């Protein structure tokens, strides 16, 4: 559990994330930050050199970052995908289904609450960007 939660005062990032526009124009950047309104598809041609993607959630009600995560995972991105900003414990399980594997919330989250949120539903009904097998596929396998 401690592996997926990060906070601003944790270990420093070796390579600070740059904007999508800056990333596409650079050859040495390995971390990128997606802001609401950025098109994650611009990064698909560069997935081989990206080590970290931060997706900013400036407000908990802004769901555009979910789409960015799923686009990148479905395109084959295997590096760290970190949700940053106004991340609430209620969203963590859904973010995980979209492909996020790390979280850097503005406000600390209780680790037990995060674990409970991730373990709340042992079965899923639809395919997503994570590796969970939908229950209908298990039933007909």
UniProtKB/TrEMBL annotation:
It comes from the Bacteria. Pfam families: DUF934 (PF06073). This is DUF934 domain-containing protein. InterPro entries: UCP030820.
